[in-house]
Amino acid sequence: MDRLAALRGALRGARGALAGLCPRGARAKAAIPAAVPATAETPGNGPGDRRLRTLEELPGPGQLRFLFQLLGQGYVLQLHKLQVLNKAKYGPMWVTHAGPQTHVNLASAPLLEQVMRQEGKYPVRNDMELWKEHRDQQGLAYGPFTTEGHHWYQLRHTLNQRMLKPSEAALYTDALNEVVDDFMAHLRQLLAESPSGNQVSDMAHQFYYFALEAICYILFEKRIGCLERPIPQDTVAFVRSVGLMFQNSVYVTFLPKWTRPLLPFWKRYLDGWNTIFSFGKKLIDQKLKEIETQLQTKGPDEVEISGYLHFLLTRGQLSTREAMGSLPELLLAGVDTTSNTMTWALYHLSKNPEIQAALHKEVVGVVPPGQVPQQKDFAHMPLLKAVLKETLRLYPVVPINSRVITEKEIEVNGFLFPKNTQFVFCHYVVSHDPDIFPEPESFQPYRWLRKSQLVAPGVHHAFGSVPFGYGVRACLGRRIAELEMQLLLSRLIQQYQVVLAPETGEVKSLARIVLVPNKKVSLHFQPRQC
Question: Exposure of 56 by Cβ count < 10 A (0-12 exposed, 13-18 middle, 19+ buried)?
């Protein structure tokens, strides 16, 4: 018998109290103007007629050319730059072939909008097949990134609860500030131990441990020691396994299956996932044991509902198997978004001291030195939010996404595509479109502020930068990630001036599925005078 089923029986009398803790999850919404109509058409034979073009008429590199771009020219770790190259050659829509799969690449905001607005009730992602292979091989349940259809819809509705709305994310402010407190103490220790007394040699590495500690505290209601000395070995192994999985997934995506026994990438990829799931299973088992212990000493009505996982397990909507499949995927997503975005943000603030000075003035104007920022304070920090938006525009965490429209044929820009066409969303090249974002390679957070006179205006488009996605399949943890980054960035800027270490030089991005720095980002932290 499922341990969780037994626990639910004991908790059945407390369901009424549990139901009142949090409103039901809501679908992500956005106030976005109506879709842009298709403009590229070929006239038909009769007056007012038109002929919709077909997939076969789309330009694009042949299969051998595409493989040469990936492996011969080295774009396998520069897929975002390959977007730029192919858009310049073929226009905003082109076709690529990878093995048996055909992909329609979309590289303009209006085209993204046309497809996203027609994605239906159950949007399908077809870029998760490798993840599914691992789950199938290990007999694991699919999570929110890998499951599809009605089951995905039900699972997502369950997971949305206590996560999706800003008011629900605000419930975690105290927990996140506790982790920020520990990170600031950890940072002071790192600085004191550095030769210069004020330097961190690999900022992304430190932010990774911060993000892992924070998301585990939210999901599993447990501190796992990422900011302690020494860091627990299973935590170190988890961090290594995430890098292992992402790095090797790039290669196994494009290499044929017959190479798997011959090359090391497939085994490394599976080993990475196995460690990730073992780590998640351990934390879930610990939570189940805590609930059992509470029930031995308290009545069902006295059991304390302490956080996200506890809430989901005792609601009766998530089985143990579903929890084992879902929580590791949420854990993975929560770590990469925060750690990489924070690294890029500090990198650019260190290169733009005037923007950093303005941000410091804004932060201390709302939260003076010695006080701790709270969720309500960020309504009065527009530049802080703009810095994070601009960072995510320059470096969308996931530079490439996908959709498969399964319910109907779809018309896009004068082309008619059959059901089950695989569309690739080229987010990186779209968010670097100079028509929408003038001087797109420049870090200009003021472009996000209304009535700003400091940057040239672009042609605003709501789909120009959508780092958290759109619609019912938008990022589940968006509000948590935003709050986490706001709390940490405001505290860092409140207390330190950040200066780029000269040896760092120019940092570029690599597409390891997610966008990461191509080298260590070394920073000096100079304490501010109160």
Answer: exposed
Question: Which residues neighbour 279 within 8 Å (Cβ) at sequence distance 6 or greater?
Answer: 234, 235, 237, 238, 241, 328, 331
Distances (CA, A) of 341 to 169, 411, 436: 19, 35, 22
Q: Is 510 helix (H, G, I), strand (E, B) or coil?
A: strand
CB-side neighbour CA atoms (13 Å) of 233? 0
As beta bridge partners, residue 328 has none
Question: What is the CA angle 224-226-230, rounded to 5?
Answer: 105
CB atoms < 10 A from the CB of 437, how many? 25
Query: What are the start-end ranges of the E strands in 277-420?
Result: 400-405, 410-412, 415-417
Containing H/E element for 421? strand 421-426
How does pLDDT run across 129-182, given as a tens digit for each residue? 889 999 999 999 998 888 888 888 888 888 888 777 788 888 899 999 999 999
Count Cβ atoms within 10 A of the Cβ of residue 256 and give its class: 0-12 exposed, 13-18 middle, 19 or more buried.
Answer: exposed
DSSP state of 232: P
Residue type at position 380 = H
- Rounded CA gap, 530 and 510, in Å? 39
Task: Count CA atoms closer than 13 A to 121's CA, side-chain side.
Answer: 6
Structure letter (DSSP) for residue 71: I
SS3 at position 402 = strand
CATH 3.30.43.20 corresponds to the domain 52-139+399-431:
yes
Burial tier of 368 (Cβ tally within 10 Å: 0-12, 13-18, 19+): exposed
Number of neighbours of residue 406 by Cβ within 10 angstroms: 16
**Angstrom distance (rounded) from CA 30 to CA 110:** 16
**389/437 Cα distance (integer angstroms):** 13
Q: What's at 300, amino acid-wise?
A: P
Residue 257 Cα to chain centre, angstroms: 28
Domain boundaries, the chain: 52-139+399-431
Amino acid 417: pLDDT: 94
| pLDDT score of 303 | 54
Question: Cβ(225)–Cβ(231) under 8 Å?
Answer: yes
Backbone angles phi, psi at 444, to 5 degrees: -135, 80
pLDDT in tens, 352-370: 999 999 999 999 999 999 9
* 475 known member of a binding site: yes
| Distance between CA atoms of residues 461 and 7, nearest Å | 50
Rounded to a whole number, what is the distance in angstroms from the first to the last CA of the chain? 60
CA distance 287 to 96: 46
- Let me know if 352 is exposed, middle or buried by CB neighbors in 10 A (0-12, 13-18, 19+): middle
Q: Phi and psi for 404 in degrees, rounded to 5?
A: -120, 120
